[in-house]
Specification:
heterodimer, A: mainly alpha, 3 helices, 0% strand, B: mainly alpha, two-stranded antiparallel ribbon, 11 helices, 76% helix, globular
Chain lengths: 95, 272
C-alpha cells in the first residue's frame, strides 16, 4: 500500500512537470522564432511564464494527492511550502 | 545571428546535463557565459539563469519522479527549510561580508570535493536499507541492474543543509545543489543518483519563486531565456541518458571534479 501511494505521488508530480515542459517548450520555440522574425518578445515571455508556473503546479498537484490519500503530515508539509512560496513573492514585491 | 542561437542552445544544453546528472543548477557556469560570450547584461543573465534552473528541474524531474529516483516526499520536506533559508539570506544579504562568506564557501567546497573523491565504493554497500519510514526511497538502477532501497538517516542534518543551501543561494547566487547533494549522500545515506535527482527536483521550486519576481518586474530577457531553456531541456535528457549508464561511484567522482572547478571559480571571484 505505501509503495502504491509513492508511485501515485511520483506520477502526479511527473504529470505536472511534463505538461509544463511541453506547454512552455512549444511556446518558447514559437516565441524565439517570432522574436527572431522581428515581432517582439511577448510570445517567448508567455512560454517562460508557463515554465515558471510549472514547479508551483507540481506542488499543487502533490498537495492534492496528499489530501486525497489522507497523509496529514505530508499535506501539512506541502501546504507549508505553498504558504512560504507565496510569502516569498509578497515580501519580494514589497522590497 | 544563427551562430548566436546555436551558442545559446549549446550553453543551455551544457547546464542541462549538469543539472540532470549532478543535481546542480549550473548557474555558476551559465551566467558568466551569457555575460562574457553573448554580451547579456548581468541582471538579465541572472534572470535567464533562474529560468534555466526551472527548465532542468522540470524536464529531468518528470522522469525522475515517475521512476522514484527523485524522492518526492524528502524533496518536499526539505523545500521548507530551503525556502526559509533563501528568505533569511535575502534579508541578511546587506549586513553580511560577502567576501568572508565566499571564502568560507570555497573552503567548504574543497572539503566536499576531497570527501566525495576519496569515498570508497564499499561505503555505499553499508547504507541502511528501507525500514518502512515515511521518507524511504526505492527505485530501479539500470546501470547496476538492481533495485535500490534506502531509508533517510539524520533528517535534521538534511534540513540544516537545505537551510544553508537556501542562505548561500540567496547570498552568493550559487549553492542550491552543491550543498544539498553531498549532504544527502554522505550524511543521510541517500544513494548518489537519488541525492542528485532529489536536489534537481527541488531546485526548480526555489528558483521559480525568484524567477516570478524577475518576470513580474519585466527583467527576463524573453528570447535569450527561451532559447537557453530549449537547450536546457535537450541537455537534461542527455544527462538522464548518461545517468542511467553511469554507476553511483562514477557520478560521485564527476561531482567531485565539478565541485573543485566551482571552488576555483569562487576563489577567483571572492579572494582575488
Amino acid at each position: 500500500m505505501p509503495e502504491d501511494l509513492r508511485r501515485e505521488e511520483g506520477r502526479a508530480a511527473g504529470l505536472a512537470l511534463r505538461a509544463g515542459v511541453w506547454g512552455s517548450g512549444v511556446l518558447m520555440a514559437a516565441g524565439a522564432l517570432w522574436a527572431a522574425a522581428g515581432h517582439g518578445e511577448s510570445l517567448a515571455l508567455w512560454g517562460i511564464a508557463v515554465l515558471v508556473a510549472t514547479p508551483f503546479l507540481r506542488v499543487i498537484f502533490l498537495t492534492a494527492v496528499f489530501a486525497r490519500s489522507r497523509q496529514w503530515r505530508m499535506l501539512a508539509v506541502s501546504l507549508t511550502v505553498l504558504v512560504l512560496l507565496g510569502a516569498g513573492i509578497v515580501l519580494g514585491r514589497l522590497r | 545571428m544563427m551562430l548566436h542561437i546555436v551558442g545559446l542552445l549549446a550553453a543551455g544544453a551544457a547546464s542541462g546535463v549538469i543539472g540532470s546528472l549532478l543535481g546542480l543548477g549550473g548557474g555558476i557556469f551559465l551566467i558568466p557565459a551569457l555575460v562574457l560570450l553573448f554580451g547579456v547584461p548581468m541582471h538579465s543573465a541572472v534572470a535567464a539563469g533562474l529560468v534555466a534552473v526551472i527548465a532542468t528541474s522540470s524536464a529531468a524531474g518528470a522522469s525522475n519522479a515517475e521512476q522514484g529516483i527523485a524522492n518526492v516526499r524528502l524533496g518536499m520536506t526539505l523545500e521548507i527549510t530551503t525556502v526559509l533559508g533563501a528568505l533569511a539570506g535575502a534579508m541578511l544579504a546587506p549586513h553580511l561580508p560577502a567576501r568572508f562568506l565566499g571564502g568560507l564557501f570555497t573552503l567548504m567546497l574543497l572539503a566536499v570535493s576531497v570527501t566525495l573523491w576519496l569515498r570508497r565504493r564499499s561505503a555505499d554497500a553499508q547504507l541502511p536499507a528501507a525500514s518502512g519510514g515515511l521518507l524511504d526511497g526505492e527505485y530501479h538502477d539500470p546501470a547496476a541492474h538492481r533495485s535500490v532501497s534506502y531509508s533517510v538517516r539524520r533528517l535534521p542534518a538534511a534540513l540544516a543543509a537545505s537551510w544553508g543551501a537556501g542562505v548561500f543561494s540567496a547570498l552568493l547566487g550559487v549553492g542550491g545543489g552543491i550543498v544539498k547533494v553531498p549532504a544527502l549522500h554522505v550524511l543521510c545515506g541517500v544513494p548518489m543518483k537519488a541525492a542528485a535527482a532529489t536536489s534537481n527536483f527541488m531546485i526548480g521550486v526555489t528558483a521559480a519563486a525568484s524567477a516570478a519576481l524577475y518576470l513580474g518586474h519585466g527583467l527576463v530577457p524573453g528570447s535569450v531565456a527561451a532559447t537557453v531553456s530549449l537547450g536546457v531541456i535537450a541537455g537534461s535528457r542527455a544527462g538522464l541518458w548518461a545517468s542511467r549508464r553511469l554507476s553511483d561511484h562514477a557520478v560521485a567522482r564527476i561531482f567531485a571534479v565539478v565541485t573543485l572547478v566551482i571552488a576555483c571559480f569562487m576563489a577567483r571571484r571572492f579572494l582575488a
